[in-house]
Structures are given as C-alpha cells and as structure tokens.
From TrEMBL:
InterPro entries hit by this protein: 4Fe4S_Fe-S-bd, 4Fe4S_Fe_S_CS, Electron_Trans/Redox
SUPFAM superfamilies (alphabetical): 4Fe-4S ferredoxins
Single GO MF annotation: metal ion binding
GO cellular component, as recorded: plasma membrane
Record domain 4Fe-4S ferredoxin-type: where: 373-401, 405-433
UniProt protein name: 4Fe-4S ferredoxin iron-sulfur binding domain protein
Pfam families documented for this protein: Fer4_10 (PF13237), Fer4_5 (PF12801)
PANTHER family named among the record's database cross-references: FERREDOXIN-TYPE PROTEIN NAPH
S-adenosyl-L-methionine recorded as keyword: no
Spans traversing the lipid bilayer: 56-75, 96-115, 141-161, 173-194, 226-249, 290-307, 327-346
PROSITE patterns assigned to the protein according to its UniProt record, in alphabetical order: 4FE4S_FER_1 (PS00198), 4FE4S_FER_2 (PS51379)
Keyword line: 4Fe-4S, Electron transport, Iron, Iron-sulfur, Membrane, Metal-binding, Transmembrane, Transmembrane helix, Transport
C-alpha cells in the first residue's frame, strides 16, 4: 500500500472538512462567471452593437450574481465575524484560485496602463454613458473608473451584509461607497460636462502628487477661473491644514478608512484577503524602509519642481522632469496599481497603503506622534483567540498588545476597527482620548483612576 506524505494528508483532510456550497450559492457564482465570460466576449467583439449588448449583460450578471451571493452567504447566517475555513479555501489562502485571480488583476492593470488599445472595444461600449455624464467619449480611465466604482459598490454591499452587526462598520462602509460614487466618479464627470477641469476632491497631495505640481496649479488657475483657484486652495488647505487637524482628533482613519478611494477598494473588494497581511517583524522593517523614502521622494520632487518653475535654477528642469516621469511610472502606476491591487490575493488588501502610499506615511507620522487616537485594550479579558490579529490588514499583531493590555498606537494603523469588530470579548476599543496617558495600559489607567477616587 502506498504511503501518503504528511503535508498531502493534511491538505486532503483540510479539503474534506470544507463545507459543501449549497446549490443556490453555486447558481449565483455561476451567474458571475457567465458575466465575466460575457465581458470577455464584449472585449473581442468588433461589432459595436453586439459588444454593447454583451457588456450590459455582463454587468447585469456580475452585479446580480454578486448581490445575490452576498445575501445567501452572509444574510442567512447569524450576524458576527465568521472566520471559518479562511485558511483552507484556495481563494483566500494563496491557493490556486488566489494566484489565478492575482494574475488576472495584474494583467488587467498592465493592459490598462500600457496597452489600452486592447481595451478599445470595451471603452467604446461606454461611449453613450460617458457622453451623458461627461459630454465626451469614453477613454481607458473612464472604463477603469466605472469598473472601480462598481467593485466598491458591489463588494461594499457584501460588506454591509457581512458586518451588519457592527454600526461602526456599516457607517464606514457606506462612507467609502458614497465618496467613491459621488466624489471620485460622478462629480469629476460632471465637471467635464460643464467644461471645467476634471478634479477629484477626495484625493490630496502627496497621494495625488501632481495636484500641487507647478504645471497642474498653473493649469487650474489659468485665466483666473474661480473654480480652478478654489481647487488649488482646497488641495492646499486639505493637505497642510485639515489633514493635521483631523488626524489629531481622529487619527488617520478619517481618511484611509472613510474617504480614500484606495482604502475604499481595499475595504470592500479586498476584504476577503485582509488576513493575508504579513505580521512578521521583518515585514514591518520593509514597510519602514520603503514607505518613508517614497514620502521623502515626493516631498523633494515637489520642492524641486517649484524651485525650477521659479527660474532660480534653470538647470533643474533636466533633473526634475525625468524624475517626475519616473515617479509617475514606478510609484503612480506600477506600485499603486499593478502591485497595489493585483497582489491583493497574495499579499493582502493593503499592500499599497502599507508599503507605498505617501499619504499613509504622512498621516502615520501625525498619528504616531501628535494624534489623540488610539486603540485601547483590556488584557484581563483577552482569551488569546487571535481573531484580532487575523483580520488586521496592516500587519499589526494586535493580539500581542491585547494580551498585555497595552494601547495600540502604530503609524500604520488605519483605524478600520476590524480588530474590535472581530473580538468576541470586547477587549479592543477605538478611542480619541486625551493625549495624557495615551501610552499607558488600560490596567494602569484604571489603577490611577481608583487611586484618584480614593
């Protein structure tokens, strides 16, 4: 009789323990798969009418299938965070399905950025919608914005079913859905329809790095247009005044988990992969080594561009323009798009936010050293189940803090609140308390309070 290796036996046992997907869920997933096939057909159909029909059918099947599956998967079970089988399923534990998903996402971003001609048929299917919203034909970025917004809305609906027991998660999810649909999709399109500059009011420097570049500022304020002047004023105020003030009171969560489109996609479409974030100290070291140099790079580049634009050092143009193009390619495209989203199924849903986003680095410094925000813990109630660490998308080993009763004050924490939501004992609480005693453990604070009262 042939012997079976231990890993193979363990894998077979794990697969045997997986619950069987019921026929209704299978039907909804089949509808999503058919929708993706219809989308593929639309991409390669040269006939505009057939391509548009296939595109409409694809959106209907994907949207209807996703919403129906979300209700069947989460709406029929008791409310609460259920983490059963996450590390057994091939789709959520870096298995074959996850790798295929990652390759497809990465391939889409590569085509979108550098081979948009391959998407021409899909782009043309959106011309009527683009003409209605923006009064101009569709382009690759309108196609991307449509897909992006649809992903946030559909997977946001999934999150609403999944976390319906948590008021904080419901409000936060609705917030990112609202800002993505209203401020990152519809409003920029309407601005174009009224022949105004396309502007995203929810993106600020240094994340939207070119918004404070001399060329962009000059374009927005040309001819003294009031709206353009307001856009420049808005961007500067949000970057240098509102961001520090809001972060002081609420931590970086006010932006990273409530407003930002990158965070919105991570919290909705990326939610199935949050447990994949590396919690090791080595990963944290790489995080520090990468994200802060990127912040320094964009700060230095912006300063150099303004010095060059002033005419003080004319020779700077030979340096700043290639550097600007390099940043746009390496950070703005490859890191934030290809890696930042394409690697969701392999490295977790906050790869870009954790390792590359200069806005996250800026907010993190403010949160770490100047904010009132913290996550308080009660070590006496912790049962070391590890749910909090498992759901942390930013690679923080929350359990280690909870066991010791230490407050969590980390630059990387985006305040998503999932650790608190997943905790079965109510050990973790998101607070905006006074800075006095911010680094004290909950036990010490409690002891101090008793001593004062006595």
């Amino acid at each position: 009789m042939a012997l079976t290796s231990a890993p193979a036996a363990s894998y077979a046992l794990a697969q045997a323990d997986l619950p069987v997907t019921d026929p209704a869920e299978k039907a909804t997933l089949a509808a999503v798969a058919l929708g993706l096939l219809a989308l593929l057909a639309a991409a390669f159909d040269a006939d505009p009418t057939r391509a548009r029909l296939s595109f409409i059918v694809a959106l209907a099947l994907v949207s209807g299938g996703t919403l129906a599956w979300s209700w069947l998967k989460f709406g029929r079970r008791p409310a609460g965070v259920h983490q059963n089988n996450l590390w057994q399923r091939a789709s959520t534990s870096r298995g074959a399905i996850a790798w295929v998903t990652g390759v497809v996402l990465t391939g889409f971003y590569v085509v979108l950025y550098w081979f948009p001609g391959l998407l021409e048929n899909l782009i043309r299917t959106l011309d009527p919608f683009s003409q209605t919203l923006r009064a101009k034909p569709a382009d690759q970025w309108f196609l991307y914005g449509t897909f992006y917004t649809l992903a946030v809305l559909l997977m946001g609906a999934r999150a609403l079913w999944k976390y319906r027991h948590s008021r904080y998660q419901l409000i936060r999810t609705c917030s990112v859905m609202f800002f993505q649909l209203g401020f990152a999709f519809l409003l920029p399109g309407l601005l174009l329809a009224f022949q105004q500059p396309e502007y995203y009011f929810t993106y600020f420097w240094p994340l939207k790095y070119d918004y404070l570049f001399p060329g962009t500022v000059g374009y927005l304020v040309k001819d003294g247009q009031a709206l353009g002047v307001f856009m420049v004023f808005w961007g500067a105020v949000m970057s240098f005044l509102a961001t520090p003030v809001l972060t002081y009171f609420y931590g970086k969560r006010w932006y990273c988990s409530w407003v930002c489109g990158c965070g919105g996609l991570a919290e909705t479409a990326g939610d199935p992969y949050r447990q994949l974030s590396d919690k090791s100290r080595q990963a944290w070291k790489w995080e520090v080594r990468i994200i802060y140099p990127i912040l320094a790079l964009i700060v230095g580049l912006t300063a150099l561009l303004w010095v060059g634009a002033s005419g003080t050092v004319p020779a700077l143009g030979a340096v700043t323009q290639p550097l600007s193009r390099f940043y746009g390619f390496a950070i703005g495209a490859v890191f934030s798009g290809v890696i930042g989203v394409g690697f969701y199924p392999i490295m977790g849903n906050r790869v870009w936010c954790r390792f590359g986003c200069p806005m996250a680095a800026y907010l993190g410094l403010l949160q770490k050293h100047f904010s009132r925000f913290r996550i308080s813990t009660n070590g006496g109630q912790c049962i070391s189940c590890g749910n909090c660490s498992n759901v942390c998308e930013m690679g923080i080993d929350v359990k280690q803090y909870a066991q010791r009763g230490e407050p969590i004050i980390r630059a990387s924490c985006v305040g998503c609140g999932m650790c608190s939501t997943a905790c079965p004992r109510g050990v973790l609480n998101l607070e905006n308390g006074p800075r006095e005693g911010r680094y004290q453990s909950s036990q010490l604070i409690h002891a101090d309070s008793l001593r004062i009262l006595s």
